[in-house]
Write a structure and sequence with these properties.
It is built from four helices and 27 strands. Helix 3 runs antiparallel to helix 4. Strand 22 and strand 23 form a beta hairpin.
Length: 365
């Protein structure tokens, strides 16, 4: 008798004890432990048993074999993971394995010996030889805007043997849309014998400019011949990369000349995207201030002050700045005298401030 070891691909020979005095020849192979045998008489025949495995289980498909011995060749097909031949003449044989399309066989060909009265066991492993095909869905490379959500379009996987493997895909790789950069998503799948991977490049970019609201338009009175100093709040822009403080020109606290000045504020983010908004600062001339004072006085029934302001305008028309300065001083005295009487304290304060600004704009001493 003899023993057949664990089912590894290769040749395994078991010899059988026969009646008689001789010892039959024993073929050698992987994992063979052969012991006694004997002469089998005139028949000189043995048997061949084949096992075809796939992942340790019998292979369900059809496998073709081509046997060659002494120059003769004959093919046969085995199914359900096994084949068996008895009354095989002793001798040496060459066996070639032709697995189904898409499979490999181990071993793919082999030499074996049939001994008289013995059984030769052949074991083959059949495996899927074709890796799955991964197809990425969506764009590759893919572009995602900074600060937005990343939605992976995914991938599909098919295999010639296993069929649809899409549910088995494992996707890895983090895309951090809070930071500009290049990221990689990797898709991997296995059919049990072969693995395939695919990768997608995801570029997180910042193409969106900052957003902010400009300060409102402003109208102020000149209080010096150069105009007036005006302070405004520099806007702070919102941006996907974080807050951005705008740069404005003229800057807050600048002296704005008489007339209308356009202020431009620009916010630039880390990626170089920029947004510019404008607003205006209008500085009233002394004539405009006095015209406004006349309108206010008309509603207060303060005719004497109205006459005084009309005289100021006439002096300015004649370019007589000195006379206009004196007349504005007289107007301020008139208003102060009526404060709390014909005029409320609040109304008086407003009129005095406007007249004082006009004197400043004229350069009055």
């Amino acid at each position: 008798m003899g023993e057949v070891s664990a089912p590894l691909p290769g040749i395994f020979t078991r010899t059988l004890l026969c009646s008689g005095a001789g010892v039959a020849s024993v073929s050698e192979g992987v994992g063979v432990e052969a012991d006694a045998g004997c002469a089998c008489g005139a028949s000189a025949e043995g048997s061949v048993r084949g096992t075809i495995l796939n992942h340790g289980a019998p292979f369900a498909g059809l496998v073709q074999f081509i046997v060659t011995t002494s120059g003769d060749t004959f093919p046969f097909t085995a199914g359900n993971g096994a084949f068996y031949f008895d009354e095989v003449e002793e001798g040496t044989y060459h066996l070639q394995v032709v697995p189904p399309s898409g499979y490999t066989a181990t071993p793919s060909e082999i030499d074996f010996t049939v001994a008289c009265g013995g059984e030769t066991a052949l074991i083959f492993q059949v495996a899927d030889a074709t890796p799955p095909v991964i197809t990425l869905l969506g764009a590759n490379p893919m572009t995602v805007e900074l600060g937005t959500a990343f939605s992976d379009p995914g991938a599909t996987a098919t295999d010639a043997i296993a069929g649809n493997l899409t549910p088995a895909i494992v996707a890895t790789g983090v895309v951090d849309t809070s930071h500009v950069g290049r990221y990689t998503r990797t898709y991997a799948v296995s059919d049990g014998d072969n693995s395939s991977t695919g990768s997608r490049t995801v570029n997180v970019v910042d193409t969106t400019p900052p957003s902010f609201t400009s300060p409102p338009n402003a109208t102020i009175t000149a209080n010096s011949p150069a105009g007036a100093t005006y302070f405004y709040t520099t806007p702070v822009a919102t941006d996907a990369a974080g807050p951005v403080t705008a740069v404005c020109s003229p800057a807050p606290g600048s002296v704005f000349p008489i007339g209308t000045t356009v202020v431009a504020c620009t916010a630039t983010d880390q990626a170089g995207n920029r947004t510019t908004h404008t607003f205006t600062v209008t500085v009233l001339s002394p004539q405009e201030v006095i015209a406004n004072l006349i309108s206010q006085i008309d509603g207060l029934d303060f005719q004497q002050a109205n006459n005084q302001l009309q005289n100021v305008l006439k002096s300015l028309d004649r370019q007589n700045t000195g006379a206009a300065c004196n007349q504005l001083a007289a107007f301020i005295n008139q208003v102060q005298a009526q404060s709390g009487h014909q005029l409320t304290a609040a109304a008086s304060a407003g009129l005095i401030q406007s007249a004082t600004d006009a004197r400043g704009a004229l350069g009055c001493p």
